[in-house]
Every structure is written in C-alpha cells, then in structure tokens.
Amino acid sequence: LRIAGPDEDGHGGEVMRLVGQLGLEAVIDYVGPVEGEPKAALYRQADLFVLPTFSENFGLVVAEALAAGVPVITTRSAPWADLETQGCGWWIETGVPPLVMALREAMALSDAERRVMGERGRAYVRRFDWDVIARQTLDCIGGCSARVTVPTASGSTDQRALPRRRPPYLLMDPAR
User: Fold this and answer.
1) Residues 19, 29: Cα–Cα separation, whole Å
2) Considering the entire predicted model, what is its pTM?
C-alpha cells in the first residue's frame, strides 16, 4: 500500500505511528506529496486509487487517476457518482465498513478486470480534456444568436448580428 499526499494536520504522522504499532512498515509506504513525473509514475504503478474523503468540491486526483487508467474508490462526499454508472470505480458511503467492502470487491477482481475498468475510466474523463472543453465553448459561442452594439467611425453606434458559426476572431494561435 502506497499513501501519497501532504500530511494535513498531522494525520499522516498518526497513520504512520499506527502502521508502526501494527508492524506493517514492510507493506505500507507513505511517500508524502508528489508532483509531475513522480506522481504520474505512481498512477501508472497503481492497481487502484482510493480517496476516502469527508468533503471534495471536485476531487482532481480522482480525474487524474481515471486519466491514468486506474479504477477509483471514493466516498459520496466527492461528486463522482459516475464512477459506478460508467463502470470505472466505486462511489461509497463514508465510513470504514463501506470502504472495507469496496476494497474487498476491488481486490477480488483480476488484474485484467481492473485494467478494463481503468480503460473505461480513461474514456470517461476525456470529457474534462481542455481540447474538448475548448471545442464545446467555441461551439456554444459560435451558436449564439445575438445582437451587439458596435461603435462606428463617426462616433455613433450600429446594431449588428453576431455570426452563428465560429467567429475567426475567437480562434487562438498557440504560437503567439
């Protein structure tokens, strides 16, 4: 078991003291906060990602794990009900018994079954890809039917309709 992330309010220290008391140092590793390639490597090595939480407004780490093809267990305090409907994880009640049950279910699956779940998760979170979001935004803006007030050279104003297709002035050149 590998635990990653900051030691908020000393909870990491508490957990590792308990690990020591139970003699589990050989099987539980606290790696602390990780970013960049080391974080990506941890996701690639993972069979399962678990985020038991009391409150998340999104839970970016869930999206990161899914994007890496890792099935997820998280609590209903995070907005990830689609984990179950998309077949890429478990969305459970907060508490030890539901977590234990989900962990048992997840670990009873074969590696191949977890990989299939991970691939479903990877496909599901593509909806959060910046390119997809940018295209949706441009389609929305381009589909607007509105009128704008435009200043004229003489100082007066003129009412003009916005174009219905993607206006070229909204397309950005990343090289600039």
Assistant:
1) 9
2) 0.75
